[in-house]
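queue> pop job 88
queue> type: inverse folding (structure -> sequence)
queue> payload:
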């Protein structure tokens, strides 16, 4: 596939997501002004938007409308950003840098950061439950359920709880995988499913995309662990080496750098294989897979 083609596709949808978020986030002149300002500060103008891009890539396969995908992508990104805001707070990972700028609790204060996360979470479901977002109400309800499950104690929040409880402990590979399937993988898997649910695919096709999502979700975390051990703060846009300094279990600490990279290649290959039945139409999903794994080299 052409790298230029993918970069153009990615830039197009990044602009789409940025414009949509700009439109759907509350304006700063609306009360409470400081909260709305902080919501826009942390959400706009940063990040690679990988999760919204996955929504659009899956949506292209499902034949979804532009409006459905726009709102689903914004809902997904609101959940993701809320999780970053809370994750950076002193009671969690206590980080001062995110996406190359001060974290919300540093730029504003802890109470504002807490409320920003709360407000972004509820905004996500406000957007996803809007009338006639999806052509099929049953699929819309399934999408809302999917995002809620991926965000809560049986998904992202539960994975974060396991992560906090694992500091200073030695986890085996199965335990580490279980943690990251929830902490990182659940929301990435949900991104694929939201894009698919916005259109019309068979149950078999949905299952194939879901398997792709599981592989990509775990791959993303493995690559993150590799980058935390090898990249600098300027490259990451957040503090490098935090996992090691906090004595957190990672794939690199468990398997070593070389084996972690080999595991990443295996997951990437499995993800590609799960898209075989879609043919050339799945090229954006394949390109996103290759984009994610290429960050480690």
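queue> result:
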């Amino acid at each position: 596939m052409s790298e230029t083609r993918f970069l153009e596709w990615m830039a197009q949808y990044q602009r789409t997501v940025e414009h949509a978020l700009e439109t759907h986030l509350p304006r700063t002149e609306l009360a409470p002004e400081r909260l709305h300002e902080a919501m826009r500060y942390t959400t706009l103008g940063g990040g690679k938007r990988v999760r919204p891009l996955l929504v659009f890539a899956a949506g292209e396969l499902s034949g979804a409308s532009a409006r459905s995908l726009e709102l689903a992508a914004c809902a997904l990104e609101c959940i993701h950003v809320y999780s970053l805001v809370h994750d950076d707070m002193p009671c969690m990972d206590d980080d001062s840098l995110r996406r190359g700028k001060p974290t919300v609790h540093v730029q504003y204060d802890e109470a504002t950061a807490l409320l920003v996360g709360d407000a972004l979470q509820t905004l996500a479901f406000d957007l996803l439950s809007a009338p006639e977002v999806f052509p099929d109400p049953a699929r819309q309800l399934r999408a809302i359920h999917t995002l809620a499950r991926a965000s809560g104690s049986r998904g992202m929040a539960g994975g974060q709880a396991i992560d906090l409880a694992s500091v200073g402990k030695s986890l085996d590979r199965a335990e580490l995988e279980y943690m990251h399937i929830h902490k990182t993988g659940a929301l990435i898997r949900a991104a694929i499913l939201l894009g698919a649910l916005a259109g019309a695919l068979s149950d078999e096709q949905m299952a194939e995309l879901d398997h792709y999502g599981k592989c990509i979700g775990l791959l993303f975390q493995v690559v993150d662990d590799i980058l935390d051990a090898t990249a600098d703060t300027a490259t990451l846009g957040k503090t490098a080496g935090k996992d090691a300094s906090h004595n957190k279990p990672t794939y690199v600490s468990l398997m070593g750098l070389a084996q972690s990279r080999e595991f990443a290649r295996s997951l990437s290959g499995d993800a590609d294989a799960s898209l075989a039945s879609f043919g050339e139409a799945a090229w954006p999903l394949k390109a996103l897979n290759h984009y994610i794994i290429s960050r480690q080299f």
